[in-house]
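> agent: user asked for a holo structure of the chain below bound to pyridoxal-5'-phosphate. Plan: (1) validate sequence alphabet, (2) canonicalize SMILES, (3) run complex prediction with ligand conditioning, (4) return tokens. Step 1... ok. Step 2... ok. Step 3 dispatched.
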Amino acid sequence: MVDKEIQLFSPYYRSEECLDEIRECLESGWTGLGYKTITFEKNWCTYTGLSYAHFISSATAGLHLAVKLLKEKHNWQSGDEIITTPLTFVSTNHSILYEHLQPIFADVDEYLCLDPDSVRQKISKKTKAVMFVGLGGNSGQLIEVADICREYGLSLILDAAHMAGTKLFDRHIGSEADVSVFSFHSVKNLPTADGGMICFKDKELDKLVREWTWLGITKDTYQRTSSDSLYKWRYDVENVGFKYHGNSVMAALGIVALRYLESDNDYRKQIAAWYDELIDSSVERVRIAPNCDSSRHLYQILSDKRDELLIALNRQRIYPGVHYTDNTQYRMYAYAKNSCPRATLSCERLLSLPIHLKLTYEDVKRISLAINEFQSHNNIVEVPYRTGLNTNGQTRQQIEA
Ligand SMILES: *Cc1c(COP(=O)(O)O)cnc(C)c1O
């Protein structure tokens, strides 16, 4: 019998509970903005302790508006700079370009998050903000970066796409930044099929973002002047806003997922603990920063023979991933190519191991043993190989015999 396939991620929904929540939307006829989106936002604020939260269609949309609204508030000019990381999903850096600002790449640290020293070096007269990504749920040196932002009067945007449930000093992540953006994409820790939450610190910006996610529509003018139902349908449009808000069907999934986020993340931490224990200590791991209780969106290891290891695991029907390609290697961001050596080297050595709620201890053991087997062979035999044949045409077995 062949072993079952083990994927990197596998979204898990509690179907019956989700259907109950969605049924309420369908039966009431309210599937759009409002209703469940409001409940979900309230529940998110209660859970995280963050002051404001607005449910949106994706984290990408949220990052765009985070940059846009801070740009308008502080009167940044096109061409001004935001310091950011090359080791992220492209959404992070695209959001800077959407607003005609310039992404300036700083290097990463041992946690694969922005390195405070590198951030300092990249600050120029044009720098307006820092975009920090908590890779895999890790808070890295966020506090140090926040201190630098305070020192230089820069805004701090937190791409918290991986950080639903991450805590720093026992408090949910997010309050360190001017704005935090969470992703509820189906492979993230709190899946709503697609979606995200934008959490501004500033009440005014929270109010504004609600208009911006709904085409710039505001009902305030008429609500303020009249409670008369005659004016209920009336609204003003103050800006060329976007259609970025979330809807009640997606929020229904979020309401259910949030009930289980703590225990789901506990299970991810259990998987990480199993990997810690079962994988040979000679295998290099990405460590979690001190005082960070990571959501464990990712469990990452590093190997000089990453590609060979990936092939070896694929042969055993195990499918890990890589988070991420150094963004400066994309044509889009090639102007900064090779400016962040640690990120460039890391992206060649990184491997994200499968981590999701359907994994069993046996699965984790199978993955760990496969890695250990690869590691022990590669420690003994120094001959590089790719397809089982070395340059003399010998198989690995022949070499080792
Ligand atoms: C997934 C992800 C995003 C984008 O999230 P969406 O909700 O899919 O738009 C942004 N940043 C990072 C680091 C991500 O992993």
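> agent: step 4 complete. Summary for user: The domain at 261-400 is CATH 3.90.1150.10 (Aspartate Aminotransferase, domain 1). Residues 58-60, 88-89, 91-92, 133, 159, 161-162, 183, 185, 196 surround pyridoxal-5'-phosphate (CB under 6 Å).
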